[in-house]
Design brief:
alpha+beta, four-stranded antiparallel sheet
Length: 606
């Protein structure tokens, strides 16, 4: 070490790990604030700041060769101008470092020095990135504490995920959720009080608003729920909560199916289903068990590593239970608040779907599955190839498309010309995280699915997504299955049917909207109220004379269910569109405030 490096070492600020430890000890109940602690102020001058490409080169230079002590790396980063803003580049560079077996012990030792004594964001980032690859059990307490600093939370969780899922989940829950309702559980987890953990685990709401699929998995991991169930074998409230969290993990609202990332999913399924008959027969419990059955039948639950015949046995067990009169009669007797009525109708329509096997099993199966409306789960067109749902298996970033998209428009039909079909889109948009495509073509007496596109890496992993082969189907059987799926409306409910019929009517008579300088937009059942039909359209002045001017303005028209047959409701809506300008009863819902004011329409307040 040079004389300058020795002087730098004597003037380094306190270690960031020590800063996190001090803040934790000063926190009430040892619970950090939401989003974790802030770093001590370390101003970064903008003068002479490296461009992104320059920073990449400088980082590679600083890491080659990998130093044996932390002080040398601190000095290199300072000399080369590497700052905290370059942390993403540092993580990427360390992830790609070649580390032969003979160098791994030295790299691990450096990672420990940096995480325990590092004083700058770049240096600690290198330490965390090294321990993501090389960490061991003794690193867990240091990672758990350092991860309480918000700049280091994500890499610390990544490192802990490969060492100890409970510690990773506890850190995730302590820093990421923003709901106050989870704070008592977080306090119980920090203290390790098992009775308090059990009490708080069954106390918080588990609706999607409060518990996302990610949060559900982390709660199950942090509380070691399978072990907790083993300690309380007759605790029906705890088993009901376990079932509810299992359902939330299988939800697709975030795109990624957290169920597949949970290593003890089989154990939890076994525990919940084996004791399902202990649950009191309520509408909420019925919905939980039916949701689990749908997942075991055609959802991500199919993809778990089941022993031969075990998934079918659990599914059959749920089918027998829910067919018992004390359970089957619940949906018929439901009255009261709107959520319960929605759920009762869903159970009446869907209650036997997961237990009804296809009459002629084949390599292609198309299942339209409507999820629990109280959870606002989407309606999916689940496509099973050789018994496996292809979207969660090969894509995992969003649910399969709706039946209106894939079936009503005939996209899955095999015509004389090959055509590409988008089966699913990432929940955030295709431009952000992609979409899943396949090309469908007819070849003599066969239909071929090939040229899969959009497969990159699976969520939460650097591993590439599995490459899908070409699938061949006997054409007559394929056509029969697609026709069956297109004509099966047993999953639908009045408002959804009204939306489909209005869409079909506007497709046949586009002039109903064009006469008002409007074109069709999104039409479906309401998200907040599934018993309403939502019709959206775009207003473009001049469209009727094929000379649209300016940016379009989007309107929304809400059609309530009046109790008459869906065909009558749709016909009445189409007649109104023919007679009355829909801008007079629709409300602006998209476009821009400036355009709305220019055209004389009020902009929505929220």
């Amino acid at each position: 070490m040079s004389a300058q490096e020795e002087r730098d070492a004597r003037t380094l600020p306190p270690a960031l790990y020590d800063h996190a430890l001090r803040l934790l000890r000063e926190s009430p109940d040892g619970v950090p604030p939401r989003r974790g602690y802030s770093l001590p102020q370390q101003p970064e001058p903008n003068e002479g700041a490296l461009l992104w490409e320059e920073a990449e080169i400088a980082i590679r230079q600083a890491l080659n060769p990998l130093p044996v002590d932390s002080t040398t790396l601190h000095h290199r980063f300072a000399r080369l101008g590497i700052r905290g803003r370059h942390a993403p580049l540092i993580r990427s560079a360390v992830a790609g470092l070649p580390l032969p077996a003979g160098q791994q012990d030295a790299a691990r030792s450096l990672g420990r020095q940096l995480t325990r004594t590092g004083t700058t964001v770049p240096a600690v980032t290198v330490g965390l990135a090294l321990l993501i690859r090389l960490g061991e059990h003794e690193d867990i307490p240091y990672l758990s504490t350092l991860g309480l600093l918000r700049e280091f939370t994500r890499p610390a969780i990544d490192a802990l995920d490969s060492l100890d899922h409970q510690s990773a989940a506890s850190l995730w829950l302590a820093t990421y959720p923003r709901r106050d309702e989870l704070r008592p559980l977080i306090r119980a987890l920090r203290t390790g009080d098992q009775q308090a953990i059990r009490t708080e685990l069954i106390a918080f709401p588990t609706t999607p608003r409060f518990v996302s699929p990610s949060a559900a998995r982390r709660i199950v991991e942090a509380t070691q729920l399978p072990d907790l169930l083993g300690q309380h074998p007759c605790d029906t409230a705890l088993f009901a909560r376990a079932g509810r969290l299992l359902v939330r993990m299988g939800g697709s609202c975030e795109g990624r199916t957290e169920l597949l990332a949970y290593r003890d999913a089989l154990t939890l399924y076994e525990s919940v289903v084996a004791r399902a008959d202990l649950l009191p027969p309520t509408l909420d419990h019925h919905a939980t068990l039916l949701s689990l059955a749908l997942d075991l039948s055609s959802g991500a639950g199919v993809l778990l590593d089941w022993p031969p015949g075990r998934r079918a046995a659990l599914l059959a067990s749920l089918g027998w239970l829910l067919a018992e009169p004390r359970w089957a009669s619940l949906a018929n007797a439901a009255v009261g608040e709107a959520g319960q009525r929605l759920r009762a109708g869903w159970i009446q329509r869907t209650g036997r779907q997961p237990f009804t096997l296809p009459a002629t099993p084949g390599s292609l199966r198309v299942e339209v599955v409507a999820g629990d409306p109280v959870d606002r789960e989407p309606v999916e067109t689940r496509i099973l190839l050789d018994g496996r749902p292809v979207v969660p298996a090969a894509f995992g970033r969003g649910p399969a498309h709706s039946p209106e998209y894939l079936l009503d428009d005939g996209r899955l039909r095999a015509g004389p010309e090959p055509h590409e079909v988008q089966l699913a889109e990432a929940y955030c948009t295709e431009g952000c995280c992609g979409a899943l495509y396949v090309t469908i073509r007819r070849e003599g007496d066969q239909v071929v699915w090939e040229n899969w596109r959009g497969l990159r890496t699976m969520p939460g992993s650097r591993d590439p997504a599995p490459e899908l082969p070409a699938y061949r189907f006997e054409a007559a059987a394929y056509d029969a299955e697609i026709t069956r799926a297109e004509t099966d409306r047993s999953w639908s409910w009045p408002a959804r049917t009204v939306a489909r019929l209005i869409t079909a009517g506007l497709r046949e008579q586009p002039g109903l909207l064009t006469q008002w300088d409007a074109r069709r937009g999104w039409i479906s059942s309401g998200f907040d109220d599934p018993d309403t039909t939502v019709v959206t359209f775009w207003y473009e002045p001049g469209l009727a004379v094929v000379k649209p001017e300016g940016n379009p303005l989007q309107f929304r028209w809400i059609v309530p269910d009046d109790g008459t047959p869906p065909q009558a409701q749709a016909a009445a809506a189409l007649r109104r569109l023919a007679r009355e300008d829909p801008k007079s009863y629709g409300r602006v819902c998209g476009g821009s405030r400036e355009r709305a004011e220019e055209l004389g329409f009020p902009w929505p307040d929220s």
